[in-house]
Each structure stands twice: as C-alpha cells, then as structure tokens.
Amino acid sequence: MTETARKKKLIEVALPLDEINAACKAYKDRKVGTIRNLHKWFAAMPMPAWRALLFAALIDDPEDDNARVYLLDLIKRLVANGADLPDESDLREAQSVLTAQFPEGLPTVMDPFCGGGSTLIEGQRLGLPTIGTDLNPVPVLITRTLTELLPHIVGGQPVHPPGEDGGLFGASPDHGRFTGLVEDVRYYAGLAEASVAQAVADLYPKMKGEELVAWRWARAA
C-alpha cells in the first residue's frame, strides 16, 4: 500500500519574511484609521501577515525556481503598502492564482475564535468564503461590521448629503469609498448630540462670556 505524495504548499518552502515583517511593523504602528483599534487583543494577527500566510498556505509550491519567484514577488506586492490596503490589481492577480489552484471551488476559511476578524477579513480580500464565531460581543460587533456591513455599502452615496449636520463637525474630509457612510455617521451623531444637549440644558445654564462644561459635586460626611 503506497501513500500518494502530497505536494508541499508554498508556505512550507519559502516566504518573503523581510517584506512581511516590515509591513507588520507599519500596521502595528498605526494608531488611527481602523475600527479594529476600538479593542486590542494580546495576540492580534497583523493584517499583512495574515494576507500573505493565507495565500502561501493555499498555493502549491510550483517546484520550479522561476515560478516560485513569481509567487513570492506577488506576496511582496500584497504587503508592499504596509498598513494600507494592497493595490486592487495585485489582489485580482492573487485571486486569479487561487482560482486556478482550486478549479472546483475555493475553500472556505473557518475561524471559531475570530477575535478582531483578521482571518475572515483577509480571507474575503482574497476572494474566499468565510465563517467565523466568537463569544466576546466586542469582536463580534467589529468583525460583523468589517465583513458583513461595510462590503455591501462600499462606494455608496450618503442618505444625508454633506451639510445636513448643520456644520456641527466642520468640513467633511474625503474618506474614499466610505465617504457616504462617514457622512451619515456625522449626520446622526449631530442629531444625538443635539438631543442630549436639549435634555440636559437646564443643568448647564448659559453664563456670559463662559461656557459651562461640567459640575463638580461633593458631599461632606
């Protein structure tokens, strides 16, 4: 009885570690610009690393130096932008390579302890179907926002156009493909702030030349 030889995956043979490490450092150094910064996990996987590792773990090593160099160069390009997203052309190229690897259908990425969603997000970015779970409601909220909500509204127009917040937040910067969402968040944040201000107005009386921001309360025994 003989066992059919299993082809090695690219991750078992070679990886562009220097480029992946540099991208991970840039990602970890970013303090703003991502919803995942709402909550930090002790062992959160940097997105560029997971993007590279998922791809390399699924692709067979071609057992040819020139073909391997091409795949490694593709991984380098997938992480070349550091903390920023990879170029769309490189993502489409990686998705094409994966489709050729799995002509009968792409594998499903499953993560039973998804945390902040690195595995699911990068799996979807590579065109893979994903399933994830977590008991902690904070990562569930973040992950569902990133993997279920945002992909459906990317590039969408705002329900409330710029300026409907009454200028409460000043000029709205360009947020690229999510400008529509940002405008609506600004609008509803303005409604919430106005409602709260009205509800507590009697606790913060207007004083000439001053703005009352808080009361200090003390009690003597």
How would you characterize this protein structure?
- Strands 1-2 form a two-stranded parallel sheet.
- The chain has 7 helices and 2 strands.
- The protein folds into 2 domains: 10-153, no CATH class; 154-204, no CATH class.
- It has helices spanning 17-29, 47-58, 65-79, 88-101, 118-125, 137-153, 179-199, and strands spanning 109-111, 130-132.
- Helix 2 (47-58) packs antiparallel against helix 3 (65-79), helix 2 packs across helix 5 and helix 3 crosses helix 4.
- The mean pLDDT is 85.
- Helices cover 45% and strands 3% of the residues.
- The N and C termini lie far apart (87 Å).
- It is mainly α and 221 residues long.
- It is elongated and about 80 Å long.
Can you give me a brief rundown of this structure?
The protein has about 220 residues and is mainly alpha-helical. The protein is built from seven helices and two strands.
Descriptors:
2 domains, mainly alpha, single chain, 221 residues, 2 strands, two-stranded parallel ribbon
Average pLDDT figure: 85
- For the record, the count of structural domains works out to 2
* Beginning-to-end CA distance, first to last residue: 87 Å
Q: Which residue ranges are poorly predicted, with pLDDT under 50 across at least 5 consecutive positions?
A: none
Into which percent range does the helicity of residues fall? 40-55%
Strand order of the largest sheet: 1-2
Q: How many strand units?
A: 2
Strand content: under 5%
Q: So what's the overall shape?
A: elongated
Biggest beta sheet summary: 2 strands, parallel
> Strand-and-helix sequence, N→C?
HHHHEHEHH
Estimated structural class: mainly alpha
Report the radius of gyration as a whole number of Å: 24 Å
Q: What is the overall number of helices?
A: 7
